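Students often ask why inverse folding is considered easier than folding. One informal answer: many sequences map to the same fold, so there is more than one right answer. In these notes we will look at a single instance of the problem. The structure comes first.
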């Protein structure tokens, strides 16, 4: 009895580890994509864009300011006082690893600029975690369904009958036209259950594709060209592009507004743009392909 419990716990442990590995893999993959969407130009003082995107991904906000010792830099921040009439933070205190700010008080819009991930300063990681969980769940379901195809038959028999049945099964695997068994084998005492597990992993793979497309749309990544249907009409591409553009604008406009404020206050020439990704063909090209197929 104790051995049976140990085996159950062991199987659960293995399955849980596989679940965690799948989630971790998708989470890091989507996180790296999310943090690589935007390209910051002309950043001063050897400032690295990965730190800006790291703060925006994790906290939904960061602050740009001029440190009296280290020069211009970005960091996370805590709100020192109340917000203003527009619900924006006023005085802020920079927070960074192994760092203590020793300069004068930082006032947002005066000698500091709050950079937002979006208008509401919502971080990206909750959404990425949600889609990583969905993708990992579908991935593991596919794996389980594939594994289920390996043992579709359960045979109930005595220990004495087991060897004869194994030999018969091996003959079937070897494509023998006739299976020979011992005459002492009583077929009436044998119960066979054909599990016949449904083959659903192709549908699960399609659903995983749809979930990934949805995630990319929310990140502003064009994914209409990932659709493998026989026909992809221009209206469908247009609808996808509009959704992608709306999602992209949510994050891009907040960053561009911060650049304008930084340049105004600090006299810099910082800009941000969407990093160029592979795009789908133009609508006219897709229409030409459809017409050519019809001919």
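Output (designed amino acids):
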């Amino acid at each position: 009895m104790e051995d049976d419990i140990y085996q159950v716990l062991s199987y659960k442990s293995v399955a849980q580890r596989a679940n965690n590995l799948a989630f971790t893999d998708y989470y890091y993959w989507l996180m790296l994509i999310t943090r690589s969407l935007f390209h910051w130009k002309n950043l001063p003082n050897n400032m690295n864009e990965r730190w800006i995107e790291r703060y925006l991904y994790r906290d939904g906000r960061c602050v740009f300011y001029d440190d009296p010792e280290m020069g211009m830099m970005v960091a996370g921040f805590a709100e020192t006082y109340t917000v203003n009439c527009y619900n924006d933070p006023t005085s802020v205190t920079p927070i960074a690893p192994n760092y203590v700010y020793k300069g004068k008080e930082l006032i947002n819009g005066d000698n500091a600029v709050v950079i937002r991930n979006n208008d509401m300063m919502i971080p990206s990681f909750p959404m990425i975690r949600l889609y990583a969980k969905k993708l990992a769940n579908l991935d593991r379901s596919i794996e389980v369904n594939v594994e289920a195809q390996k043992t579709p038959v359960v045979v109930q028999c005595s220990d004495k009958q087991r060897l004869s049945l194994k030999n018969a099964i091996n003959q079937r695997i070897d494509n023998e036209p006739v299976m020979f068994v011992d005459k002492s084998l009583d077929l009436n005492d044998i119960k066979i259950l054909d599990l016949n597990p449904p083959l659903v992993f192709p549908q699960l793979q399609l659903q995983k594709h749809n979930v990934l497309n949805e995630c990319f749309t929310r990140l502003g990544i064009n994914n209409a060209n990932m659709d493998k249907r026989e026909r992809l009409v221009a209206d469908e591409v247009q609808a996808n592009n509009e959704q992608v553009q709306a999602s992209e604008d949510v994050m891009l406009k907040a960053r561009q507004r911060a650049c304008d404020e930084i340049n105004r206050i600090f006299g810099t020439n910082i800009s941000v743009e969407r990093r160029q990704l592979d795009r789908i063909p133009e609508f006219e090209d897709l229409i030409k392909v459809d017409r050519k197929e019809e001919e």
